[in-house]
Amino acid sequence: MSRAPGAATGAALLGKRAIAEIQFNDFVASGFNQLVNNTAKIYARWNQPVPVTIRLPWGGLRNAGPFHSQNTDPWFYRTPGLKIVCPSTPAEAKALLKSAIRDDNPVLFYEHIALYRAANIKQDLPAAKDDFTLPIGKAHIKRDGNDLTMITYGAYVHRCLDAAEKLHAEGISCRVLDLRSLQPLDKEAILWCVKTTNRALIVHEDSKTGGIGQSVASIIAEEAFEYLDAPVRVLGALDTPVPYSPTLESQFLVSQAQIIEAARLLAAY
To answer: Which one of 46, 153, 202, 257 has the largest count of C-beta atoms within 10 Å of its C-beta?
Structure first.
């Protein structure tokens, strides 16, 4: 696995459209130098396309412990030259994977392990002949609402959708924006959602400190401050390694109850 980024990059430089898988995403640390200092920089240095897709099964919600449950996307979020996608449904996974493979840039394809067998998100996929794809860098509104926007990605899209349904019964209308692409971010969609609901709740599975949510919050504060009717709120996991114990993992991760309570506070602000 430590050689996967280098082997895939070499294949790409020889004219292939390389696909590598690192099972699990935590183990990408062993190939970090190749990915960050070689693969990501080749186009900027040589003007040489590097069509590499690296599949990275990731995430918790499975009681798999600290070596199989990390969120490594922030490691690469600030690395110029890498694209990052993170689908939350089967149809989007297929469409974005095809787009990633066809892209001439290195793409990190994060696929949440907890969604592999999630029966509640089962879908009929478009037929191969339809050649359905989605553009990298475009977010998607999974649920519309007027009172606040929940901004999220990965498995937490579904946790936010469940929370939004419960809040609807209380008279709080929540829009849920699935980022789908972390690099590049769809700033246009983020800002439009915030400007039209005037409140933003950013929710992700990763630890809050240094997470992508804080970067999104900064964008909103800098570019949509005058539209806000409440402070931007970021919910993330605790700043500890991912626990193995089911009881501890449930305390480590953001719960649906926490999402609902944060939304209530924002709506009432």
So the answer is: 153
